[in-house]
Amino acid sequence: MTAKKNYLIACGGHGRVVLDALLASQQKVDGIIDAQLAKDSEIFGVKVLGDDQLLKSFAPSVAQLVNGIGSTGNTTKRFEIFKYWSDLGYQFMGVIHPAASIGAECKVSQSAQIMAGAVLQNRVSIGENVVINTRASVDHDAIIADHAVVSPGAIISGSVKIGRGSFVGAGAVIIQGIEIGDNCVIGAGAVVRHNVKPQTTVVGNPAAQLE
């Protein structure tokens, strides 16, 4: 069977970090799909091929995708891209940067992105389309549900549960055993000491609901 070709969707700031991680981990990237970039230009030696219409000309049986959409407090766009192309039958591949540390018995979905310097301690579970960004730390037995994003430098303590589509800001700290509901936003630098209900934004130290 012929190996699928790998295409990166979007190559802005986060997309370039993903591309860099893919290349550092010796993954083959066959092209970039991004209407905002000049066709035939190159990023890190990988050519920009065109927009979504071009991608649709590649059958799901021969094309595999990488999600280059980032998140600045809202994971919706990233989720929408993942769902749109998944519903058309395409599979997404993820990446684990060679400078990340993955402990024993971790479960990392094939579409998750684990960036440079990130640490996953033993028995961590990482869902589909999740980002664990630069130097974030996820301790033992934590569960990060599908489509969540953990920003650079965040500290997720042991046995924490982070709900589907939630966003954890840069440098935030979530203490042992806390549960974060679905579609929450944890502000940058927040220190979370109590459970957070779904669709809630919390900020500060100690973290409190944003009015």
Q: How would you describe this protein?
A:
This protein is an alpha/beta fold and 211 residues long. It has two domains: 5-93, Rossmann fold, CATH 3.40.50.20; 96-203, UDP N-Acetylglucosamine Acyltransferase, domain 1. Helix content is 13%, strand content 29%. The chain contains three helices and 25 strands. It has helices at 13-24, 52-55, 76-87; strands at 5-9, 31-33, 42-43, 46-50, 63-67, 91-92, 95-96, 101-102, 107-108, 113-114, 119-120, 125-126, 131-132, 137-138, 143-144, 149-150, 155-156, 161-162, 167-168, 173-174, 179-180, 185-186, 191-192, 201-203, 208-209. The strands form four sheets. It has an eight-stranded mixed beta sheet with strand order 7-10-13-16-19-22-24-25, covered by helices on one side. It has a six-stranded mixed beta sheet with strand order 3-4-2-1-5-6, sandwiched between helices. The protein has a six-stranded parallel beta sheet with strand order 8-11-14-17-20-23, with no helix packed on it. Strand 24 (201-203) and strand 25 (208-209) form a beta hairpin. The longest helix has 12 residues, at 13-24.
What are the low-pLDDT stretches, counting only 5+ consecutive residues below 50?
none
Top CATH class of the largest domain: Mainly Beta
Give the rounded overall mean pLDDT.
Answer: 96
CATH topology type of the largest domain: UDP N-Acetylglucosamine Acyltransferase, domain 1
The N- and C-terminal alpha carbons lie at a distance of 55 Å
The beta-strand count equals: 25
Structural class, by secondary structure, is alpha/beta
Our Rg estimate from Cα atoms comes to 17 Å
Give the number of domains.
2
* Sheet with most strands: 8 strands, mixed
Q: Tell me what the CATH architecture of the largest domain is.
A: 3 Solenoid
- Output the CATH homologous superfamily of the largest domain: Hexapeptide repeat proteins
Helical percent range? 10-25%
- Give helix and strand order, one letter per element, not per position: EHEEEHEHEEEEEEEEEEEEEEEEEEEE
Write down the overall geometry. globular
Instruction: Assess the beta-strand content as a share of residues.
Output: 25-35%
